[in-house]
Amino acid sequence: MYLLSTSDIEWQRQSDALLLSQHIPRRWHYQESSVSFLLEVPDGHYDVAEYLLSQQYVEDLQRHAQRSRQTKSGPLLLEPAFAASLSFACLLALLFALFGPHTATYRQMIFHAPALGYGEWWRLISAALLHADLPHLFGNAGFMLVLGWAAAECVGAGYMLFFWLLTALGGFAVSFGLSDIVNTVGSSGGLYGLLGVAGGHGIRHPRNPQDSRRPRLRVFGAVVLFLAFTAFSPRANIYAHVGGFIVGLALGYVSPKDKPKPFWQLSVFVVTVLVCGWGLLSAMR
Questions:
Q1: 78, 82, 164, 276: which sits with the fewest CB atoms below 10 Å from its CB?
Q2: Which tens digit of pLDDT belongs to each residue from 100-115?
Q3: Domain finish residue from 43, 71, 99
Q4: What is the CATH number of the domain that holds 26?
Protein backbone atom coordinates (compact mmCIF):
# COMPACT_ATOMS: atom_id res chain seq x y z
CA MET A 1 0.00 0.00 0.00
CA TYR A 2 1.10 3.54 -0.70
CA LEU A 3 1.65 5.49 2.52
CA LEU A 4 2.95 8.95 1.61
CA SER A 5 4.39 11.13 -1.11
CA THR A 6 7.22 13.59 -0.59
CA SER A 7 9.68 15.67 -2.59
CA ASP A 8 11.87 16.36 0.46
CA ILE A 9 15.03 14.24 0.19
CA GLU A 10 15.88 14.75 3.86
CA TRP A 11 12.41 13.62 4.96
CA GLN A 12 12.73 10.59 2.68
CA ARG A 13 16.05 9.65 4.31
CA GLN A 14 14.63 10.04 7.81
CA SER A 15 11.61 7.92 6.98
CA ASP A 16 13.76 5.29 5.33
CA ALA A 17 16.05 5.09 8.37
CA LEU A 18 13.11 4.87 10.77
CA LEU A 19 11.41 2.04 8.87
CA LEU A 20 14.72 0.25 8.47
CA SER A 21 15.31 0.36 12.22
CA GLN A 22 11.95 -1.39 12.71
CA HIS A 23 12.64 -3.94 9.95
CA ILE A 24 9.67 -2.75 7.93
CA PRO A 25 9.96 -3.48 4.18
CA ARG A 26 9.51 -0.39 1.98
CA ARG A 27 9.98 0.77 -1.56
CA TRP A 28 10.20 4.23 -3.04
CA HIS A 29 8.68 4.98 -6.43
CA TYR A 30 9.70 8.10 -8.31
CA GLN A 31 6.79 10.11 -9.76
CA GLU A 32 8.06 12.07 -12.70
CA SER A 33 4.84 14.04 -13.11
CA SER A 34 5.04 15.56 -9.62
CA VAL A 35 8.82 15.24 -9.15
CA SER A 36 8.31 13.38 -5.88
CA PHE A 37 8.73 9.96 -4.28
CA LEU A 38 5.91 7.63 -3.30
CA LEU A 39 6.44 5.30 -0.34
CA GLU A 40 5.03 1.80 -0.55
CA VAL A 41 4.87 -0.61 2.43
CA PRO A 42 3.28 -4.09 2.72
CA ASP A 43 -0.32 -4.21 3.92
CA GLY A 44 0.62 -6.00 7.15
CA HIS A 45 3.02 -3.22 8.14
CA TYR A 46 0.90 -0.29 7.06
CA ASP A 47 -0.55 0.65 10.48
CA VAL A 48 2.78 0.47 12.28
CA ALA A 49 4.56 2.44 9.56
CA GLU A 50 1.83 5.07 9.57
CA TYR A 51 2.10 5.49 13.34
CA LEU A 52 5.90 5.76 13.31
CA LEU A 53 6.00 8.28 10.49
CA SER A 54 3.24 10.39 12.02
CA GLN A 55 5.18 10.53 15.30
CA GLN A 56 8.28 11.57 13.41
CA TYR A 57 6.32 14.27 11.60
CA VAL A 58 4.97 15.66 14.89
CA GLU A 59 8.47 15.76 16.40
CA ASP A 60 9.78 17.60 13.35
CA LEU A 61 7.02 20.17 13.66
CA GLN A 62 7.78 20.67 17.35
CA ARG A 63 11.49 21.18 16.67
CA HIS A 64 10.67 23.68 13.94
CA ALA A 65 8.32 25.58 16.25
CA GLN A 66 10.96 25.65 18.98
CA ARG A 67 13.60 27.02 16.61
CA SER A 68 11.13 29.65 15.44
CA ARG A 69 10.51 30.76 19.03
CA GLN A 70 14.23 30.94 19.72
CA THR A 71 15.00 33.01 16.64
CA LYS A 72 12.00 35.30 16.99
CA SER A 73 13.07 38.62 18.51
CA GLY A 74 10.97 41.32 20.09
CA PRO A 75 11.56 45.08 20.25
CA LEU A 76 15.22 45.94 20.68
CA LEU A 77 14.57 48.02 23.79
CA LEU A 78 13.07 44.97 25.52
CA GLU A 79 16.14 42.81 24.96
CA PRO A 80 18.05 42.68 28.29
CA ALA A 81 21.50 42.95 26.70
CA PHE A 82 20.70 46.11 24.74
CA ALA A 83 18.50 47.66 27.44
CA ALA A 84 21.18 47.22 30.11
CA SER A 85 23.88 48.75 27.91
CA LEU A 86 21.69 51.69 26.93
CA SER A 87 20.64 52.28 30.54
CA PHE A 88 24.23 52.28 31.74
CA ALA A 89 25.27 54.68 28.97
CA CYS A 90 22.46 57.02 30.09
CA LEU A 91 23.59 56.62 33.70
CA LEU A 92 27.08 57.78 32.75
CA ALA A 93 25.53 60.90 31.22
CA LEU A 94 23.49 61.52 34.37
CA LEU A 95 26.54 61.16 36.61
CA PHE A 96 28.43 63.59 34.40
CA ALA A 97 25.64 66.13 34.90
CA LEU A 98 25.65 65.59 38.67
CA PHE A 99 29.36 65.16 39.38
CA GLY A 100 31.16 66.51 36.31
CA PRO A 101 34.24 68.78 36.33
CA HIS A 102 31.96 71.76 36.93
CA THR A 103 31.03 70.48 40.42
CA ALA A 104 32.83 70.89 43.73
CA THR A 105 33.00 67.15 44.41
CA TYR A 106 34.71 66.24 41.13
CA ARG A 107 38.22 66.49 42.57
CA GLN A 108 37.21 64.16 45.39
CA MET A 109 36.04 61.49 42.91
CA ILE A 110 38.78 61.27 40.31
CA PHE A 111 41.63 58.76 40.41
CA HIS A 112 44.43 60.56 42.31
CA ALA A 113 47.44 58.34 42.94
CA PRO A 114 48.72 60.04 46.14
CA ALA A 115 45.22 59.92 47.66
CA LEU A 116 45.08 56.17 47.11
CA GLY A 117 48.19 55.92 49.26
CA TYR A 118 46.21 57.57 52.06
CA GLY A 119 43.43 54.98 51.83
CA GLU A 120 40.92 56.79 49.58
CA TRP A 121 40.12 53.58 47.70
CA TRP A 122 36.69 54.75 46.68
CA ARG A 123 38.38 56.77 43.93
CA LEU A 124 38.96 53.52 41.99
CA ILE A 125 35.17 53.23 41.70
CA SER A 126 33.99 56.81 41.46
CA ALA A 127 36.63 57.68 38.86
CA ALA A 128 35.34 54.92 36.57
CA LEU A 129 31.88 56.49 36.61
CA LEU A 130 32.96 60.03 35.70
CA HIS A 131 34.37 61.77 32.62
CA ALA A 132 36.54 64.79 31.99
CA ASP A 133 34.43 66.56 29.34
CA LEU A 134 31.58 66.05 26.89
CA PRO A 135 33.64 64.45 24.07
CA HIS A 136 35.07 62.01 26.63
CA LEU A 137 31.57 61.21 27.87
CA PHE A 138 30.00 60.79 24.41
CA GLY A 139 32.82 58.56 23.20
CA ASN A 140 32.67 56.24 26.20
CA ALA A 141 28.87 56.18 26.31
CA GLY A 142 28.77 55.16 22.65
CA PHE A 143 31.35 52.43 23.18
CA MET A 144 29.46 51.33 26.29
CA LEU A 145 26.35 50.79 24.22
CA VAL A 146 28.18 48.68 21.63
CA LEU A 147 30.66 46.76 23.78
CA GLY A 148 28.27 46.31 26.69
CA TRP A 149 25.68 44.91 24.31
CA ALA A 150 28.20 42.44 22.88
CA ALA A 151 29.39 41.30 26.31
CA ALA A 152 25.85 40.98 27.67
CA GLU A 153 24.93 38.74 24.74
CA CYS A 154 27.66 36.37 25.94
CA VAL A 155 27.40 36.45 29.74
CA GLY A 156 24.10 38.21 30.51
CA ALA A 157 23.22 41.77 31.49
CA GLY A 158 23.97 41.39 35.22
CA TYR A 159 27.36 39.80 34.66
CA MET A 160 28.20 42.37 32.00
CA LEU A 161 27.86 45.20 34.53
CA PHE A 162 29.72 43.21 37.18
CA PHE A 163 32.58 42.44 34.80
CA TRP A 164 32.71 46.09 33.75
CA LEU A 165 33.31 47.03 37.38
CA LEU A 166 35.96 44.35 37.89
CA THR A 167 37.84 45.27 34.72
CA ALA A 168 37.65 48.99 35.47
CA LEU A 169 39.15 48.31 38.90
CA GLY A 170 41.78 46.07 37.31
CA GLY A 171 42.69 48.75 34.79
CA PHE A 172 43.14 51.40 37.47
CA ALA A 173 45.15 48.95 39.60
CA VAL A 174 47.54 48.37 36.68
CA SER A 175 47.78 52.13 36.14
CA PHE A 176 48.51 52.70 39.83
CA GLY A 177 51.18 50.01 39.94
CA LEU A 178 52.98 50.50 36.62
CA SER A 179 52.56 54.11 35.53
CA ASP A 180 53.43 57.51 36.94
CA ILE A 181 50.00 58.96 36.06
CA VAL A 182 48.75 61.07 38.96
CA ASN A 183 45.21 61.98 37.89
CA THR A 184 42.87 60.08 35.58
CA VAL A 185 39.16 59.53 35.13
CA GLY A 186 36.78 57.61 32.88
CA SER A 187 35.21 54.24 32.18
CA SER A 188 37.58 53.30 29.35
CA GLY A 189 39.35 50.59 31.35
CA GLY A 190 36.02 48.84 31.88
CA LEU A 191 35.11 49.30 28.22
CA TYR A 192 38.30 47.57 27.16
CA GLY A 193 37.38 44.98 29.74
CA LEU A 194 34.01 44.35 28.09
CA LEU A 195 35.78 44.02 24.75
CA GLY A 196 38.00 41.42 26.39
CA VAL A 197 35.00 39.63 27.91
CA ALA A 198 33.26 39.29 24.55
CA GLY A 199 36.50 38.29 22.87
CA GLY A 200 37.55 35.77 25.51
CA HIS A 201 34.12 34.17 25.47
CA GLY A 202 34.20 33.95 21.67
CA ILE A 203 37.64 32.37 21.70
CA ARG A 204 36.63 29.75 24.28
CA HIS A 205 33.18 29.09 22.80
CA PRO A 206 33.32 29.87 19.05
CA ARG A 207 30.06 29.67 17.14
CA ASN A 208 31.85 27.62 14.52
CA PRO A 209 34.03 25.06 16.37
CA GLN A 210 35.75 24.14 13.10
CA ASP A 211 37.16 27.65 12.73
CA SER A 212 38.33 29.14 16.02
CA ARG A 213 40.70 31.60 14.30
CA ARG A 214 37.99 34.11 13.43
CA PRO A 215 37.18 35.10 17.04
CA ARG A 216 40.89 35.64 17.70
CA LEU A 217 41.26 37.79 14.60
CA ARG A 218 38.16 39.81 15.46
CA VAL A 219 39.39 40.44 19.00
CA PHE A 220 42.87 41.39 17.83
CA GLY A 221 41.48 43.74 15.19
CA ALA A 222 39.07 45.37 17.62
CA VAL A 223 41.80 45.93 20.21
CA VAL A 224 44.14 47.48 17.63
CA LEU A 225 41.44 49.81 16.33
CA PHE A 226 40.23 50.76 19.79
CA LEU A 227 43.76 51.44 21.01
CA ALA A 228 44.47 53.47 17.88
CA PHE A 229 41.30 55.46 18.49
CA THR A 230 42.42 56.49 21.97
CA ALA A 231 46.22 56.44 21.69
CA PHE A 232 46.41 59.85 20.04
CA SER A 233 44.79 61.57 23.00
CA PRO A 234 47.43 62.98 25.35
CA ARG A 235 45.12 62.24 28.27
CA ALA A 236 44.53 58.58 27.39
CA ASN A 237 45.51 56.14 30.14
CA ILE A 238 46.89 53.28 28.06
CA TYR A 239 47.87 51.33 31.17
CA ALA A 240 44.27 51.25 32.38
CA HIS A 241 43.08 50.28 28.90
CA VAL A 242 45.47 47.37 28.51
CA GLY A 243 45.01 46.24 32.11
CA GLY A 244 41.22 46.26 31.78
CA PHE A 245 41.37 44.33 28.52
CA ILE A 246 43.61 41.60 29.96
CA VAL A 247 41.35 41.15 33.00
CA GLY A 248 38.28 41.08 30.75
CA LEU A 249 39.86 38.57 28.38
CA ALA A 250 40.49 36.22 31.30
CA LEU A 251 36.97 36.65 32.69
CA GLY A 252 35.37 36.02 29.30
CA TYR A 253 37.53 32.97 28.70
CA VAL A 254 36.58 31.27 31.98
CA SER A 255 32.88 32.17 31.67
CA PRO A 256 30.52 29.29 30.83
CA LYS A 257 29.10 28.91 27.36
CA ASP A 258 25.53 29.55 28.52
CA LYS A 259 24.51 32.66 30.44
CA PRO A 260 24.16 32.18 34.22
CA LYS A 261 20.64 31.82 35.62
CA PRO A 262 18.52 34.93 36.40
CA PHE A 263 19.13 34.52 40.16
CA TRP A 264 22.88 34.93 39.68
CA GLN A 265 22.39 37.73 37.17
CA LEU A 266 20.34 39.64 39.72
CA SER A 267 22.76 38.84 42.53
CA VAL A 268 25.85 40.21 40.78
CA PHE A 269 23.83 43.21 39.56
CA VAL A 270 22.90 44.08 43.16
CA VAL A 271 26.53 43.68 44.24
CA THR A 272 27.64 46.01 41.43
CA VAL A 273 25.08 48.66 42.38
CA LEU A 274 26.04 48.49 46.07
CA VAL A 275 29.76 48.78 45.35
CA CYS A 276 29.27 51.71 42.94
CA GLY A 277 26.92 53.38 45.41
CA TRP A 278 29.50 53.00 48.18
CA GLY A 279 32.17 54.56 45.98
CA LEU A 280 30.05 57.60 45.15
CA LEU A 281 28.77 58.12 48.70
CA SER A 282 32.28 57.79 50.14
CA ALA A 283 33.56 60.43 47.73
CA MET A 284 30.73 62.84 48.58
CA ARG A 285 31.41 62.46 52.31
A1: 78
A2: 999 988 998 999 889 8
A3: 71
A4: 3.30.70.1530
